Amino acid sequence: MSSLSYLTNCSFLQILSVAKNRLTGALPRSITNLSTNLEGLYLSENQITGSIPTGIGNLFNLIYSGMPSNLMTGMIPEGIGMLSKLQVLDLSVNKFSKEFPSFIGNNTQLFVLSLAENNLEGSIPSTLENCQRLSQLYLGFNNLVGCIPKQIFSITALHVLNLEANSLVGSLPMEVGNLNGLGILSVSNNKLSGEIPKSLDNCLGLENLFLNGNFFQGTFPRLSSLKGMLQMDISRNNFSGRIPEYIETLPYLQYLNLSYNDFEGQVPQEGIFKNASAISVIGNRKLCGGSPALLLPTCPSQDSKKQRRRFSTGRMIALIIGSVLCLILLLSIVFYCVRKSKKHPHPHPVTDPLEEQLLKISYGDLCKATDGFSSANLIGVGSYGSVYKGSLDLIGKTIYKGFLDRIGNIVAVKVLNLQRGGASKSFIAECKALRNVRHRNLLKIHTICSSIDSKGDDFKALVLDYMANGNLEQWLHPGSGEQHQSKNLSLIQRLNIAVDVAFALNYLHNSCEKPIVHCDLKPSNILLNDDMNAHVGDFGLARFLSEGISSCSQNHTSSRSIKGTIGYVAPEYGMGGEVSTFGDIYSYGILLLEIFTGKKPTDEIFNGSLSLHQFAKLALPERAMEIVDQSLLLVEFEGLNESQTHTNARGRLEMCLVSIINVGVACSRISIKDRMEIGDAMVEMQGIRDLYLGVGRNN
Ligand SMILES: *[C@@H]1O[C@H](CO)[C@@H](O)[C@H](O)[C@H]1NC(C)=O
Ligand SMILES: *[C@@H]1O[C@H](CO)[C@@H](O)[C@H](O)[C@H]1NC(C)=O
Ligand SMILES: *[C@@H]1O[C@H](CO)[C@@H](O)[C@H](O)[C@H]1NC(C)=O
Ligand SMILES: *[C@@H]1O[C@H](CO)[C@@H](O)[C@H](O)[C@H]1NC(C)=O
Ligand SMILES: *[C@@H]1O[C@H](CO)[C@@H](O)[C@H](O)[C@H]1NC(C)=O
Ligand SMILES: *[C@@H]1O[C@H](CO)[C@@H](O)[C@H](O)[C@H]1NC(C)=O
């Protein structure tokens, strides 16, 4: 390791990787004198001993730091807390000891934090809450004690939370339900107790749930919204009651371990329970029945139960018919009422009582909040109205207090231009589409205003999250928007945006009650908050697939009207094709190509037969780097000279960019059936981002 000190004279050094060698010895103190341009430091899989010099804080431009699988000891130095740009910190599989570093809360840009498999002691500090961008947190296999701080569950970006094999006590806080992007939750082999909060059912993306080896008790809650569940291990706890039957209905479940609990009654028979090798129920003395391969005693009076079941099937049918009749009656009444009150339609987009109250936001209040809809507050003119920046503080009503705490004082107010045909329909479409959807990558409607303005005309407005960084269009093509002229999106920012949008689309297509087609995905509809997290907005053209509406246009009767936006709209819509989720995927593909090539699909070079899709496809794979936005490469390659052409960093970068272009091309194919599914695109893009960040043990 001491040879690294020779590099202190390389004042432009940006990336230093000596991963997967056989380097021994301690990190030399002089490492703190490396170039302050250093962004990446990869030391993983060596035999490095000793501690990290505290002067590491000098490397203030460090973004990625990975030292997993070494023999490093001592405390994690405070200097790490000074690395304010750090996004990835992986110190796993070492021998770091002493208190858990509480200064980690200073690294507010952290995206991945792995301290797993060390000898860390003490409790998890609540300051971790400051790392609001944290997506992956691995703290397993340490000696951590105390409770899981509730504050962790305010990090809504969390995708992986792994705390396994520590000595944590207390319960799983119900705030866990705030993490609706959580994919993996592992708290196995701790000393946690109490009941599993029902709110876990809000973690819609949860795929892997490991609660095994704790003292959890009570009945296991019904988590029937978690349709994506793949693996679930709740063994070695003290769960009681019957095995929840909804587990039968989880379509993707591959592994279920219920062993060593206190479950009782009959084991369900359908779904995963059909496959005895995928489940484990041993050590529950009161269970019976189930698949014969489980070798459980037969349940008492099973025959009579069967008969009862047959009987109840008949009753069930009668019940269903009855309910359907009632529903039809109810619907006709509702329909009648709605028609009667058509003059003042008042769609309720939200059901939360607090928000119901806020529905009463008036024209006057919005007028105050936006300083009389002043041009100084005008932040955009969209297809169906104008958007103003508003300050709820200006209204000065206490009723907004609770609201303010949750959404902040600044909001965006989208006023619909009712003179323009279709605006009213667009309003209703937007309310409907967003009424029941909640996702961190969708622009949220907080409340609406359907009222009369000062001149006595109809007035309709939506109160939305304010997005401090404007829209993606302004960032990709700064000429058109003045605000961000000097800024340039980095590769990781672009990747994050692309992944965020894929998350949002996947949610709309696959996780809502009825699939929603956005119909107008394009850079100007992708909004960026102050952390540059992308939010898909402008649902003015959105459609529910189940409504039997076959076009994405504003005016359903005319097939000639414009559908979506030229350049982004799927070719089949132009030929009268039916609206489908594949239309959005086409737009997503084009969007990806635009984000990474910097070329608009309407660029003049695409006026003939060449489209952005073909342009990208023709460049694959050898010339992919030539079509990538050169300003992007300039930043990424700065400091990598010719002789370093073949370093990991460059190779990996190329691999990422080629893969991205590939996904973009696969999503924007002309033929619908050849297009990628959004779920696959999402997984691919996440994988590419992980590859770029060097996440994962095998890097
Ligand atoms: C760094 O550069 C200085 C002056 O240019 C030189 O004296 C010194 O030996 C160099 N150090 C290393 C480690 O190469
Ligand atoms: C770092 O550089 C400074 C100034 O060049 C020097 O005084 C100091 O001794 C160096 N520190 C280490 C640990 O090499
Ligand atoms: C953490 O940040 C605060 C405020 O920015 C600063 O005062 C403090 O020194 C930092 N702590 C560490 C360990 O870097
Ligand atoms: C398991 O839960 C039951 C009540 O459901 C309780 O009586 C028993 O003491 C618990 N056992 C353990 C080991 O916690
Ligand atoms: C289920 O969990 C128990 C205890 O945790 C373990 O012994 C068993 O091997 C697991 N079963 C399967 C099929 O993995
Ligand atoms: C049953 O489960 C095993 C182990 O998880 C798996 O390999 C197998 O494919 C499953 N069989 C069926 C029919 O699903």
TrEMBL record:
Primary subcellular site in the record, as a coarse category: membrane
Pfam hit, one: PK_Tyr_Ser-Thr
SUPFAM superfamilies (alphabetical): L domain-like (SSF52058), Protein kinase-like (PK-like) (SSF56112)
InterPro entries: Kinase-like_dom_sf, LRR_dom_sf, LRR_R13L4/SHOC2-like, Plant_receptor-like_S/T_kinase, Prot_kinase_dom, Ser-Thr/Tyr_kinase_cat_dom, Ser/Thr_kinase_AS
Gene3D superfamilies: Phosphorylase Kinase, domain 1, Ribonuclease Inhibitor, Transferase(Phosphotransferase) domain 1
Keyword list, A-Z: ATP-binding, Cell membrane, Glycoprotein, Kinase, Leucine-rich repeat, Membrane, Nucleotide-binding, Phosphoprotein, Receptor, Repeat, Serine/threonine-protein kinase, Signal, Transferase, Transmembrane, Transmembrane helix
Transmembrane segments: 316-336
Reaction(s) this enzyme catalyzes, per UniProt: L-seryl-[protein] + ATP = O-phospho-L-seryl-[protein] + ADP + H(+); L-threonyl-[protein] + ATP = O-phospho-L-threonyl-[protein] + ADP + H(+)
GO molecular function, one term: protein serine/threonine kinase activity
Any one annotated GO CC term: plasma membrane
Keyword Metal-binding carried by entry: no
Span of domain Protein kinase: 373-683
EC number: 2.7.11.1
Membrane topology: Single-pass membrane protein
Name of this chain's protein: non-specific serine/threonine protein kinase
Organism lineage string: Eukaryota, Viridiplantae, Streptophyta, Embryophyta, Tracheophyta
